[in-house]
Amino acid sequence: MHKNRFIAGIDIGTEGEIVLKMIKELLLLFHLPWQEGSSGAKLKIENFFSASWGKTVLRWELGLEKRVLSRREPIVGILSKAEEHRLIKLNLFFLLGKIYGLPVAPWGILHGIRPTKIIHRYIDSGKSRAEILQKCERDYLVSPQKAKLLTDIAFFQRPILKTSTPQTVSIYIGVPFCRSRCLYCSFPANIMNEKNMPLVDAFMVALKKEVEATKELLQHHHLKVQNVYIGGGTPSSLPEKYFAQLLAYAREMMDNSTYEFTVEAGRPDTLTVEKMQLMADAGVDRISLNPQTMQEKTLHLIGRQHTPQDIVHSYEQLRAYTSAKINMDLILGLPNETVAEVADTLTQVLRLAPEDITVHALALKKGSNLKINQDKWQLPSDSVVQEMGRITEEALVNARYVPYYLYRQGYISGQLENIGYAQPGAWSMYNIQIMSEKQTILGIGGNASTKIVSERGEKYLHTVFNPKDLLTYLRNVDTYIEKKRVLAAQYL
Hints:
The protein is α/β, with parallel strands linked by helices. It is built from 15 helices and 17 strands. The chain has helices at 17-29, 81-100, 116-124, 129-140, 144-161, 197-220, 240-253, 273-282, 296-302, 308-321, 339-352, 369-372, 382-398, 429-436, 470-491, and strands at residues 7-11, 41-49, 53-62, 65-74, 168-175, 177-178, 190-191, 224-232, 260-264, 286-288, 325-332, 356-361, 402-407, 418-422, 440-445, 449-453, 461-465. A nine-stranded mixed sheet has the order 13-14-12-11-10-9-8-5-15, sandwiched between helices. Strands 1-2-3-4 form a four-stranded mixed sheet, covered by helices on one side. Strand 9 (260-264), helix 8 (273-282) and strand 10 (286-288) form a beta-alpha-beta unit. The chain is globular and about 70 Å long. The termini are far apart.
């Protein structure tokens, strides 16, 4: 195993950005930082394909030390771009492993954000559960435990996904304001204070424009709204007057067939009794109240302006004022936290018994203060975070919670995943739809994404992304409304 763990340069010829992205994912898996001009190793990677195999040649150089390694892997099925990429990742995984030692990799070379999509494709092609498990383990090196988790979730989702038709859509409303910025956050949230109130006024005007345009689009294309999800930022950071307008705008787009109405009210310092009553009156039936941890020292460290007691108080008030299902988010791998502290957080949250618990492994996101100043914080090792994940899964399953959706992120602690667990019958349909990408999602507001699912044309998924920057969104809202109108006319 080589001790120098830096990469100074990568030569892939003309293979393109997708191959480079895959190589970066593998370097991340091996904990090999890529720093141009450093004293690390230089890599030259060449890939060759025939009708029956894919071969990768790795030329590795560090000072006067040079190695040439190669590996050939048989093609599964027919050679496609997806199969080429899988072969490259698989070959490189083992070649880098010869130099640096194989990492503990629960997900193997399966690095996409939405791995359940692969399982759904296997199910659609008629493969059995046993065949799918075998393919996950053999073709992607996924551990048996993660292969079973992924496959179980996909099969669980099948009847739920069938509730959607080509005329059924969901709506996401993005509110880019928050009370403060958390250490790990990379969302484009603007701080809610008196100084920014003119921005709030302008945002509500722009949002109203998008709502009116979306209502016209729904009517013109005879679409039914299955789910509405208001996220952010923190939507409940809006003052009561604006929060009431926000809920009214959402109601304008809903109809009698709407199944689920979710609002993220993630921080107790943004909730008032009036806002709770407004949500109850608007028919909000799912509310996210997110402690992230129940350790007070960690809450202070990551910039949350509340205590564990505040979470409990807001939870009890929500139960008193609304009949909504409650989701709570937890994060594994926060700075300085131990396995014992995660166990204590689980005990406190399970005592409250929310219907839905989403467990995130900490991701070092670009633009977050945690990523920018990473050296200032002591993060748990991958092995510690994996133990946190193990005890969390055990506790939730023992408490009769069922895993129902899953996604992964880059720079994620412990090489783990984010999983939604719910009590029987309490899962979020929107979360399943957004991660499966089998239903059209119409995005409204700051940093919202519109994804139109259609079999018409060359591509299956067609997208428009509203700007992350709030001022850009406000200046160009009419442009993005028109982009969505044109896309809908073409593909809906």
